């Protein structure tokens, strides 16, 4: 073999290796297609979810074609390594219309989609609670860990997005979330990166219930906050539990943001425990001169740590029974 042949042989071997890896990856992801018109494997999302086996190491992908799917769904706690992907975020819609006071189901029972499993990814979907302004009505309810949302839309009014699980970690990128009161709430640690947050009335965007053992709860990074016409007193957050943690970092804030920024939920004691702050935000609502005095001051270093997944999502859990 001469010196000219060797490079061509190496290139051929590399191409063969790449093709083999790509083929193995394709086989590792088992795809199930959902289509209302009968062109897929199943006509409903619920049917597809029933076919996902729990506690499996391989990845399953559920691809949902365009359409409106009126379903109330629960993703079992044993499910992991699942991708749920819509054909288009605007026109692939999962919707239901339960609400808390209906048959006394409560807030936790009012969801359209509940995710109990771990290592789940959502892409290009709309999750909606269509009950209207009737009190608490959850669109997405998560209790699992390591759940990611890309280019998803969450539509509702009060309590649109419920992030349960005090040790849960969630990541949102390029998502749209709208609502009225406390429409992003719960105990999880969540990073919202470049998302669009829309307040529909004078009320509160967040109601975190972060545990005191968690360094941070909600972090909004480079997000755009907007408000419906006529809204002029929209608070960034109030503490559902005393140690609530919420930060807005390099976000665009509208004039609709209340000058105080944050609310103590009518309990002055919360002012000593709640962890709220902003860093380098812009827009007419970013003026901090009228903010509550008990908010926290972020440095460049602390802000950088909050927006870093490596730092924000670190967990060290030791258990010796």
Overall description:
With 321 residues, this protein is mostly beta strands. It has four helices and 25 strands. The strands form three sheets. The protein has an eleven-stranded parallel sheet with strand order 1-2-5-8-11-14-17-20-23-24-25. The protein has a seven-stranded parallel sheet with strand order 3-6-9-12-15-18-21, with no helix packed on it. Strands 4-7-10-13-16-19-22 form a seven-stranded parallel sheet. Strand 1, helix 2 and strand 2 form a beta-alpha-beta unit. The longest helix has 24 residues. The radius of gyration is 22 Å and the shape is globular. The termini are far apart.
Topology, please?
Layout (H helix, E strand, L loop, with lengths): L4 H24 E6 L10 H6 L8 E6 L2 E4 L2 E3 L4 E7 L5 E5 L16 E3 L2 E6 L2 E4 L10 E3 L4 E4 L2 E3 L5 E3 L5 E5 L2 E4 L4 E3 L2 E5 L2 E4 L4 E5 L9 E4 L2 E4 L7 E3 L7 E5 L25 E5 L16 E2 L2 H7 L2 H4 L9
Q: Roughly what percent helix?
A: 10-25%
Oligomer: single chain
Major beta sheet, specifics? 11 strands, parallel
Cα shape: globular
Approximate strand percentage: 25-35%
SSE pattern, N- to C-terminal: HEHEEEEEEEEEEEEEEEEEEEEEEEEHH
Structural class: mainly beta
Number of helices: 4
Rg: 22 Å
Q: Regions with pLDDT < 50 over 5+ consecutive residues?
A: 20-27
**Strand element count:** 25
Give the integer mean of the pLDDT values.
92
Kindly report how far apart the N and C termini lie. 63 Å
Q: How are the strands ordered across the major sheet?
A: 1-2-5-8-11-14-17-20-23-24-25
